[in-house]
Amino acid sequence: MHDDPHIDNELDDMTARVRALETILVEKGLVDPAAVDAIIETYEHKVGPRNGAAIVARAWSEPDFADWLREDANEAIASMGFVGRQGEHMVARFNTPDEHNMVVCTLCSCYPWPVLGLPPTWYKTPAYRSRAVREPRAVLKEFGVTLPETTHINVWDSTAEIRYLVIPERPEGTQGMDAAALADLVTRDSMIGCGQPLRPETP
Ligand code: FE
Fold first, then answer.
1. Whether 179 contacts 54, CB under 8 Å
2. CA 17 to CA 24: how far, in whole Å?
3. Which of 44, 159, 184, 193 lies at 20 to 30 Å from 53 by C-alpha?
4. What is the pLDDT of residues 78-135, one digit of tens each?
5. CA of 157 to the centre of ligand 1 (A)
């Protein structure tokens, strides 16, 4: 089943309506397109992914919480207050030196909104959706992620039923950092599996 509201290659009804509304509001001078872009930018890069980063940082700091995430990501994530549409059926996949996890929606753009915000544009492109499955290692390389040949790559296809959150490996040199400082290292792309967390700045 794949019956969630998709944005595929052509405008669906909702997208068409939103676009029509935006056009009218802009023409009448009621909204500033730059302001709308700024709001979208905020949700894509700041508000949304910060929730996921808080989850990852807690998983890095608290082994019990990490176990809870492995066993029941829905409950563990809901316990932090991150609930809502497109986040009802969460599964957390933990990266290890042997296994790297990467998320795609091959059919459209399913994405865990409550923990990552709005999907980035590239996530919705036909190129990413097909190539992530066919040649994940090459795609990762384009994102600047080069994995050892011995690391197996699991590609998880999101659906209306299951949304994935990748828990990247905790970077070296982060001993003693608190959860807030750790969360600052967690990038959006690292939680899709298309990036690595930042390294702590050397003093
Ligand atoms: Fe989808």
1. yes
2. 11
3. 159
4. 999 988 777 779 999 999 999 999 999 999 889 998 899 889 989 999 999 999 999 9
5. 9
Q: 180 CA distance to ligand 1 centroid (A)?
A: 32
Q: How far is the CA of 42 from the centre of ligand 1 (A)?
A: 22
CA of 85 to the centre of ligand 1 (A): 13
Q: Which residues of 148-178 are buried (b: 16+ CB within 10 A; e: fewer)?
A: eeeeeeebbebbbeebbbbbbebbeebeebe
Distance, in Å, from the CA atom of 23 to the CA atom of 42, rounded to the nearest integer, reads 21
CB 195 within 8 A of CB 144: yes
Dist. CA 154 → ligand 1 center (Å): 18
CA distances from 23 to 9, 20, 31, 38, 121 (A): 20, 5, 9, 17, 21
Taken in order 120, 158, 137, 168, is the CA torsion positive or negative?
positive
- Active-site positions? 105, 108-110
With 0-12 / 13-18 / 19 or more C-beta atoms within 10 angstroms meaning exposed / middle / buried, residue 139 is buried
Q: Residue 19 to residues 7, 25, 65: CA-CA distances in angstroms? A: 13, 10, 42
Beta bridge partners of 103: 156
